[in-house]
Amino acid sequence: MLAAERGAARNTILAYGRDLEQAQEMIGGQLDVASPAQLARLGQGWSSLAPSTLARKISALRQYFGFLVDEGLREDDPTHALPRPATRRPLPKILSHAEVEMLFATVEDEASGDSPAAVRLLTLLEMLYGSGLRATELVSLPVSAVPRDVPFLTVTGKGGQARMVPVSQRAGKALQRWLALRPGDSPWLFPSRTGHISRVRLFQLLKGLAVRADLPPEKISPHVLRHAFATHLLEGGADLRALQTLLGHADISTTQIYTHVDAERLVRLVNERHPLARGRSSD
Question: Is 93 a known active-site residue?
Fold first, then answer.
């Protein structure tokens, strides 16, 4: 159902599967006939988990029992016995403009000699920071997603949802350099010996670049660059709805996290634009 009807990502399906298997092991019996009392003990056993992990496990169970009820496989839903953890979405890690410039200065210098590996890394970085792609979206791009005459990529995101993502002039130039150097006839934009490069390999490449750019490697990841893309666009005056479309967020509430990050710009906005602030400055 998750795959066919909701289009859930493979990683989501695997995570939910693990959660349900672990829950069945903990109750010591068949999960589909578990009682409210057994589910209450699950909550007690999971009390030491991080709130976000607990919330995911409880969500998996609620969706599972909701499915059983909808399919007529069970008459009651026992998940009222589960706790309701109060989750707080953590603020994303971000990079300053100076840190991003250090990354680009290093990779551009390395790619000046047209080394395929260096040009590939430059292209990956341009597309992470310049288009805000997720790691999985980027490494799994087929060559066919890169049209020659239109500055847009066709990206398949979470849940199999396709969207058009603009490509900056800088990223477009890097792409053309990489396409000229790209080895073989693989259908993938960033091929490897077994298909396309993996998310793990992308992480490794970025960590290595951070070290060479004299930045702490723990600060750099594909998702941090995606956060930097979003935050720096908001700083430049981008509309939140437009940012939602660019990031491929199904819900605007997911995008709104970036309004909490850009606190300095909000304070400046109030000081410059509020009627009382303008009146006092004129006095």
Answer: no
